[in-house]
Amino acid sequence: MDANTDISPFRIEIPQADLDDLADRLGKVRWTNELPGAGTDYGVPLEEVKTLVEYWRERFDWRAVEAELNSHRQFGTEIDGQNIHFVHVRSPEPDATPLILTHGWPSSFVEYLDFIGPLTDPRAHGGDPADAFHVVIPSIPGFGFSGPTNEKGWNRYRIAAAWAELMRRLGYHRYGAHGNDAGSLIAPEVGRVDPDRVIGVHVTQIFSFPSGDPAEFEGMSEEDMAKLRFLQWFWENMGAYNKLQSSAPQTLAHALSDSPVGQLAWSSQLIGSLDPDAVLTNVMIYWLTNTAASSARLYYEDAHAGEPNEPTTVPIGLANFANDFQSIRRFAERDHQNIASWNTYDSGSHWATYEVPDLVIDDIRAFFRKFR
Asked: pTM here?
């Protein structure tokens, strides 16, 4: 256990000099060249980035965003030698279930800020007060205000152990875990590391892959084969960030830490799914905290951490959205012993948390209703 277990209030206060430096850099962009008619074949189109940068320079108001972020109760504590930033909001309902929600990359803790009201106070949002949660939303170590990391080894397993300690430190002895993207990797490990206290794990992806054994494909349905083909397409066309950040995160970070436009373009997963203010809020958090390198290192640490030998045992539920990584149940059942719900939706995408939050919230409520 850490010697220092203090929890302190946290407030975002970005120096004006940092904003002035950003404005200066945005005013001196050297644009890349582009092939005529290339569209998105080679990556994020130049015009798309130019449009966002113009919005960034002329209309985006960080101080307004900062004030909005500071309207949420934020805290900091040190766990396993690492600063951990988190939002913590208790429900007015005395029997609410504690729930820790973990964001992904290139998102941030803001991914779940709009969930706070409906989850903590369903009575005020047209829901059943029996579905109330006490909400904890941490920033992943190395991301934003929990960064940068200062030593090797911050993989999903170490983060999960830190989350278990955080919930213990907050006095929660029975709680649930939810995650999207990287959070969908971390949340099941919270259940693995703290099975006596975690009542259930809810995710928007189950990252279970074929092992290479041909027997795994025997009798596979056409529906699952289609998912497998989509999975192959996803990694071949959308997985470059994973490969690079898993193998050479520091090389990439030299560019991202020096160029806000580079940081914006590399965060292109969010472009198209989010409105400009949401995209730029996330980009600003990475830029202002200089966590391009440390956030990318999570991929490297995970790639070099190995895989558990045993399946998870805590109940797990999936809400799988359209146009996202398609989870395949036969592989999921190999890695997770207790699949308690498996729901698919014909809307949303990888960032359903932003696009269709009501569907995600309803699925979270329905899942944890089983274990209250």
From this structure: 0.96
List the CATH number of the domain containing 338.
Answer: 3.40.50.1820
The residue ranges of the chain whose pLDDT is under 50 are: 1
Q: Which of 371, 216, 284, 266 is nearest to 44 (CA)?
A: 266
Helix, strand, coil percent content, the chain, rounded in steps of 5? 45, 15, 40
Please say whether the beta carbons of 326 and 230 come within 8 A: yes
3-state helix/strand/coil string of 258-310: CCHHHHHHHCCCCECCECHHHHHHHHHHHHHHCCHHHHHHHHHHHHCCCCCCC
Total structural domains in the chain? Answer: 1
**Domain, as residue range, for 335:** 60-369
Tell me the pairing of strands 74-79 and 7-10. Answer: antiparallel
Question: Three-state SS for 11?
Answer: coil
* Res 307: pLDDT: 85
Cross-strand partners of 203: 179, 318
The number of residues in the chain equals: 372
Both structure tokens of 81:
């030698």
Pairing of strands 82-89, 74-79: antiparallel
